[in-house]
Structure formats: C-alpha cells, structure tokens
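Board notes (copied after class):
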Amino acid sequence: MAEVKTIAKSTAGSTLADVLALVLDKGIVIAGDIQIKLADVDLLTIKIRLLVAGVDKAKEMGIDWWESDPFLSSKAREAEADEEKIKLEARVKELEAKEKS
C-alpha cells in the first residue's frame, strides 16, 4: 500500500499585518553612515537615520515635528497665517503713521 504524505501548515505564523502592528507599536530604528575619504581626508559624511513608529509611540519618544509643519498640520498653517497677519497689520500701522507725519 502506498504511503500518503500530507503537507503541514503552520498556523502560528505572523501575518504582515501582525508584523506591521508590532513595528508601529514598538518602533524600529535604522541607522547608517556613509563616508567618502580620499587619502584619509574626509570629503563627505552622510548620516542616515530612519525611525518607523506609530504616532503614539513617536509622541511618547518626544517626536512631534509634524504638528508644527504647516504643510502637514492645519493648526500650524493657521498659526503661521495669524503670525503673518500680525506682521502685516504692524506694517500698515507703521506706513499710516509715516503718511500722517
């Protein structure tokens, strides 16, 4: 009689979603330096740092630059517009004062 072999499946494997959730929850850092030297003289050094983490984890680590970037945050755009408005109003008052004297 012929022997029948079955292929066993692993049900304990991680899916891509599981791995991604873990990386975003814990964070991962990739760091590297590129140096170009000629006769032991540094011509160029490039430091590369990449952090992949969820927003909550990044904030926990003190990283929140996107909140003050006007291209990414509507609050930052509003603050920038308010600042510009104050500068323009001050300039108009200055010019009006010069005109009156």
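Comment from the instructor: The radius of gyration is 28 Å. Residues 64-101 form one domain.
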